[in-house]
Amino acid sequence: MIRIFLTGYMGAGKTTLGKAFARKLNLPFVDLDWYMEERFHKTVGELFVERGEAGFRELEKNMLHEVGAFENVVISTGGGAPCFFDNMDFMNRNGKTVFLNVHPDMLFRRLRVAKQQRPILQGKQDDELKEFIIRALEKRAPFYSQAQYVFNADELEDRSQIEKSVEKLRDLLKL
């Protein structure tokens, strides 16, 4: 039985690498955010506003436990999911956890072009965005560092890099 949890900051490539990796292993791919949106017919942003952060994080934990019972699956968590409740312990007990580590400069480049799709980043100037990313990574590091594996996900910019990363991840996890 294979159950892999991909964790990391927004823009780390959890969905990009996760989809390609699951396809290579011929496994289903579940993006936790998409799963929640499909289940509740609302965007993650709407759920967050409607329930507040505490209510959203409780819902996210419940959905993580639900998808964490699936077998033979690759799961991409939300960037904040590992940082609340016992979510990292739960993932470590129930599967292989991989922290997609990305240099802050690379995250900045990726998120800078995706600001409009991410409400928490909208309206931030470049220097504010860089500082926001660095501070968030510092806060989340104690949680991300609990992952069983650390994978450098700086190189996911084109199909060739994604394919190479899939093979490197496969080697790392011995699959």
Automatic annotation (TrEMBL):
NCBIfam families: PRK13949.1. ATP binds at residues 11-16, 118. It is found in: Cytoplasm. GO terms for molecular function: ATP binding; magnesium ion binding; shikimate kinase activity. Keywords: Amino-acid biosynthesis, Aromatic amino acid biosynthesis, ATP-binding, Cytoplasm, Kinase, Magnesium, Metal-binding, Nucleotide-binding, Transferase. It comes from the Bacteria. Substrate binds at residues 33, 57, 79, 140. Belongs to the shikimate kinase family. Monomer. Catalyzes the specific phosphorylation of the 3-hydroxyl group of shikimic acid using ATP as a cosubstrate. This is Shikimate kinase. Pathway: Metabolic intermediate biosynthesis; chorismate biosynthesis; chorismate from D-erythrose 4-phosphate and phosphoenolpyruvate: step 5/7. Its main location: cytoplasm. It catalyses: shikimate + ATP = 3-phosphoshikimate + ADP + H(+). The keyword Membrane does not apply. Pfam families: SKI. Mg(2+) binds at residue 15. Its cofactor is Mg(2+). Its EC number is 2.7.1.71. One of its GO terms (biological process) is aromatic amino acid family biosynthetic process. InterPro entries: P-loop_NTPase, Shikimate/glucono_kinase, Shikimate_kinase/TSH1. Binds 1 Mg(2+) ion per subunit. It is an enzyme of class 2 (transferase). HAMAP family: Shikimate_kinase. It comes from Bacteroides salyersiae.
